[in-house]
Amino acid sequence: MRQVFVYFLLLITPAINAQTLYSKAFGNPQDKPLLFMHEGPGNNCARFEFTTAQRLADQGFYVIVYDRRGEGRSTDPNAEYSIAEASVDIQGLMQQYQLQKITLLGHRFGGMLAVLFARIHPELVQAVVLIGTPISLQESYTQIITQCKTIYETKNEMSNLKYIGLLQAMDPTSIMYASYCMLHAQRNGLLRPKKPTLEAQKIYKSMQSISELKKWNDQFTQEAVLGFAQNDNYTTLNLSEFIQQLNQKNINVYGFYGQDDGFFSNEQMSNLERLLPENHLYYWPQCALNVFIDQQALFLETLKKRL
Predict the structure, then answer these.
(1) CA separation (Å) from 93 to 17, 133, 160, 261?
(2) pLDDT tens digits, one per residue of 86-114
(3) What is the pLDDT at residue 2?
(4) Helix or strand holding residue 146 (H, E)
(5) Cis peptide before 134 (omega within 30 of 0)
(6) Using the 8-state DSSP alphabet, how is residue 239 labeled?
(7) With contact defined as beta carbons under 8 Å apart, do 113 and 45 qualify?
(8) How does DSSP classify residue 95?
(9) Residue 52's CB: how many other CB atoms inside 10 A?
(10) Model confidence at 5, in pLDDT bands (50, 70, 90)?
């Protein structure tokens, strides 16, 4: 019932002035428009903006990036951090950039928002590209715990095994459960490629010399996590049914994922492959969280070919 109420809000919430959001466009406005929706909650678009946006525009796209309301450079003390608010802001950005229809590039949580927006406003969406987006965060948290437990057992780290036991006893729908899962994933390198490509190594090295990127790449808005959790209980969402609905509405949904991404088991990826249209899933080696960096050449080439 709560989710139904949230989606009703998407339809009735009044418009918000998107010009109060941080946004930036790359490329020719006459080219096909793409809107990048960053990970999170709590993050920003800087990593994609400074490493990939211009290169994607060079492929013949009009690329727009933005920070969600109250996150990153879109400071707003009155941000409510909700799916409804995020949806209205997308519409505001489309008005600002005079776009009739858009393709959404959703990274992680941004992909979850992209699916929900496209479901409510199919008339505004050309396609949805999921970039390492969890279809079910609950399944991904279980996968993280399984992997970390195996690592701790192999290393005989009894104290960390105790913490895993405490984590498994927690309410899996709580934000604390989600936060501790992410801490263990980061501690054990589950979000990084095991053996980065030379291309990725060069990009990551170059990122260290971009002061603006270094500044914002380390910024995190805790209020966004708490807000989305309170307003939408986002960690319990499952996108499977919604993606099926997009398929029925002839909105193409693509998936770009990394084989080193600890968020996903082989079973999860098999289920995703069945869920997406045939040949719409790309699952690349030497690639984890940041697909657009870890396999940038493949990312750019594939987007140009499919879109």
Answers:
(1) 8, 22, 45, 31
(2) 999 999 999 999 999 999 999 999 999 99
(3) 38
(4) helix 137-154
(5) no
(6) -
(7) no
(8) H
(9) 23
(10) very low
Residue that is written with structure tokens 């400074």 in the block: 50
DSSP state, 63? E
Distances (CA, A) of 69 to 16, 81, 124: 10, 7, 20
Question: Residue 271 is encoded by which pair of tokens?
Answer: 């289920």
Alpha helices (H) along 20-61: 46-48, 54-57
Tokens of 179: 């936060």
Residue that has been written with the tokens 């005079």 in this structure: 98
**By three-state DSSP, how is residue 254 classified?**
strand
Look at residue 19 in the predicted model and tell me its pLDDT.
52
- The 8 Å CB, 24+ separation contacts for 211-220 are 212/46, 212/50, 213/46, 213/47, 213/49, 213/50, 213/51, 216/44, 216/46, 216/72, 216/73, 217/46, 217/47, 219/44, 219/72, 220/42, 220/43
Q: Which of 138, 147, 142, 132 is nearest to 283 (CA)?
A: 132
For residue 9, the model assigns a pLDDT of 40
Q: Which residues contact 209 (CB under 8 A, 6 or more apart)?
A: none
How far, in whole angstroms, is CA 13 from its chain's centroid?
23
